[in-house]
Write a structure and sequence with these properties.
With 167 residues, the chain is mainly alpha-helical. Helices cover 77% and strands 5% of the residues. It has a two-stranded parallel ribbon with strand order 1-2. The N and C termini lie far apart (61 Å). One of its GO terms (cellular component) is cytosol.
Length: 167
């Protein structure tokens, strides 16, 4: 019985080693490919322009609020309590508007990123799938992933770049 168990364990080890060797695994540098794609470069530039515009609008409003705060602070001793209370409420409202602008800008940015990067991601995934099928890879792992433990298989980065027509 003991010999049968040892034999069974040996057979399992041989089968599992041969199954592991049968799998073709490759790695791919996703960030390298993405950064080489002209679509990504254009999307990044569009996102940066959008972000710069929104930040400028928010800064303009914040600067106006700071100027009002300075003015109201300087004039406060000369004003009545009711006037100061009204000015304080006005500043509070302005602060809330700035916060709403920031929140809206963040949501708009996320939406713009989703629209811009969705087709790029799909194109990249389709190319990776095509390369994997053409080369018989069962797994392609991101070479930049922190969970990546071993990188000994072939690198499919060049093949995916070629499929996309980028350098």
């Amino acid at each position: 019985m003991k010999k049968l168990s040892v034999l069974f364990a040996a057979v399992i080890m041989v089968v599992s080693v041969s199954m592991a060797k049968a799998q073709k695994i490759a790695s791919v540098d996703l960030m390298g490919i993405l950064n080489a794609m002209p679509e990504k470069k254009k999307a990044d530039a569009d996102i940066k322009t959008f972000l710069d515009t929104k930040q400028a609008e928010i800064k303009k409003k914040a600067d106006a609020g700071q100027a009002k705060l300075k003015q109201y602070t300087e004039e406060a001793p000369k004003k009545t309590a009711d006037e100061n209370k009204a000015r304080e409420a006005e500043l509070q409202k302005l602060q809330e508007e700035i916060a709403q602008m920031q929140e809206k800008a963040q949501k708009d940015l996320q939406g713009k990123q989703d629209v811009a990067f969705g087709p790029i991601e799909k194109k990249l995934n389709d190319a990776i799938e095509k390369v994997a099928k053409a080369n018989g890879y069962e797994f392609i792992m991101d070479a930049n992933s922190s969970a990546f433990v071993y990188k000994g298989g072939p690198d499919a980065t060049a093949a995916v770049k070629k499929e996309l027509g980028v350098n």
